[in-house]
Write the C-alpha cells for this entry.
Amino acid sequence: MHDNRNKNAMKRVEKGMMKANSTRNLFAMSAIILTTFMITTVFSSAINYIENMNLMQMRTLGTAADVSLAMPTKEQEQQITSLDYVKTVGVRYMAGSISKKNAEGREFSIVLQYYDTTEWEKHYQKAISGFVGKYPANENEIMLSEDALSQLGIKAPELYMEIPLSYSGRNGRQERIFTLSGWFHSYTDTGMGFVSESYCKNAGCTMVEDGVLSLSLKKMPDDFLRLQRDVKLNENQFWDGAVLMKSSSGSVVAMVIFLVMFIIGSGYLLIYNVLYVSISKDTRFYGLMKTLGTTQTQIKSLVKRQAVKFACIGIPIGILLATTVSFGFVPLFLEKGFNQGKSAMEAVVFFHPSIYILSILFSAFTVWIACNAPAKAAAKTSPIEALKYQNFAPQKTKNRNSKNGGKLYIMAFHNVFRDRKRAILVFMSLFMGITMILGVNGIVGSYKAENYVKQYMDYNFEYADIQVRQYEQLQKEVPQFDEHFIEQIEQIEGIKNVEIQKTVWAGIDFDESDFRDFMKIKYEDSSYKANSYKANRQSYEQMLAGLRAYANAGEYGCYITTLMDERILEEYNENHPKTAIDLEAFCVVLQIRCTSSMQIRCA
C-alpha cells in the first residue's frame, strides 16, 4: 500500500482527534506533568542536598581552602604558587589577639588577622553569611564577627562606630580606637577580627614569622599526597587541615539514580496506560483510516505526534511546578527548622542548569518509549478485525460453569482480568507508585536528626569548647566555658544531667606489621574497596601508601576521649576476662592538648 501523500488531511484528522479526546488529553498531559515534576524534584533535591552538605562542612571548618601551611619560607611560597594542581593560594597574617574578661568574669580571646584578596574572596567569604560593610582598608579600621561583637558587649553594631580595644601584637600590649568597617556571621563559634594590610605592614608582620598560606587544590586527596612529596617542610612545619576532606556523595548519587529509574518506570506505565486505553476506544477509527488508504507509518506518526504535543505542554509545566516548589516552599520550611539562617546547614537553594537539562531529557525519553508500544498497536489494527474488536479484549473466550458466577464481585474479578496484559500494567503502575511514595518517605525520614541522636547518642545537646590560642602566649589556650558556666546550665529548668568530656588528638606511629590484622579488617569494611566508582577504588597497597603519607605528615592518629564513668571499664573486664584492660596503665595521664565538650540531658 502506497502513501496517499495527503498531509493536509492527516493534519485535519490529528486536529479533530485532539478536540474530540479532551478528557484523554487532560489525563495524558497530567501524567507527563507529574512525571516531569517528580524527576525534576528528585534531581533538584539531590544536587541541593550535596551542595548544602558541602556548604555546611565548609562553614564548620571556616574556610573553603583544602590545606594550609604556617610560617612558609620564600622558596616554599614560590614553589607552591608554581604548582599546576594548586588552584588558588591565599595569604593570611596572625596580627594579634584581644584577651579580656566578660561581665561574668570569664576570660575570652578574639583573634586578629589579615587576609589578602584571594584568601578573603575565594576561601573565607564563602564560609560566612550576613556580611555587612567592607573589608578594612585603613590602618585604624577593623571588621568583627558577630561572636566577637557579642563578646565585646556590642548588641547593635553600626558602620564606622568607634571601638576602643586593648590587644596584644608584635609590639606588645597596645590600646587603640578602631573604626568598625563591617561585620558578619561565622559558624565556628569563635570571635574573629580582621585588620587591614597597612596595619600589618606598620606592625612589622612577616610571612616567615606570622604568615599562613591557604591552598585550594584541584583534586583531593590525590593532589594533597603530591603536595607532600613536592614541597619539603622544615622541622617545625606541618600541613594543617589535610584530614578534613570532602566526604563522598556516592550513596546519594546511587539513591538518586534508583529513584529516577523508578520514576521513569512509573511514568512510563502511567503514560502508556492512558494512550493504551485511548487507542482501545479508537480501534474502529484506526481500522476505518486503514480502509481509506492510511499506512502503518502514518498511524504511528499520528499517535506519536499527539504524544509529542502533550510533552511540549506537560514538560514545561512540570518543570515550572518543580521550580516553584524548590525555590518557593522548600526554603520556607527549612528556615523554620534551622534557626532562621543561623545554622551551618542553611536553607540555600542552588540553581544548576544540569537539573533542567536532565529533567527534559529523561521526561522526553519516558514519553517517547511510553507512546511507542500503543502506536505500534494502533498501526497493526486491521480493518476487518476492527469491526469486531472491543476494548482490546482477547478473541478467545472461556466457558465457565459456576454456581456463583452471577455474583457481583466474581463478575468484577473476571472483567478486570478479561485483558490480562492491561490488568498487569495497571497493577504494576499502582505497585510502583505506592512503592515510590513509601520509598521516598522512608529515605527522607531516615535523614532526621532524631534518628541519629537515638542511634549514636544518649544525650540531647552537646556544647563543644573550641579553644583559641592567644597571640602573646601561643602555648596558652583560653577555655570558652568554665565551672561557673556549667553551674548556670545545671540551674536551667528541664536540665536533667550535665556531664563533661575531654577529647584529645594523639599521634600514632604507623607500623604496618603491628597494624596488619586491623588494617585488613578496615580495608574490607571501608569505602576504599566498596566504592561503586571504579576510578575511586583502591587496592590494599594503595590504602597503606595513603595512610603512610598521612603518618609522614604527622596527620595519622586518633582521638582519645575521657570516659563518663570508670565502671564502664570494670564491666568490660568482667565480660571479657581474656582481653581485660590494665586499669592502672589505662589511667596514665597524657600531656597533650585537649578540647572539652559538655553533654546535656534534658528531663
In short: Residues 242-248, 468-476, 530-536, 589-594 have pLDDT under 50 and may be disordered.
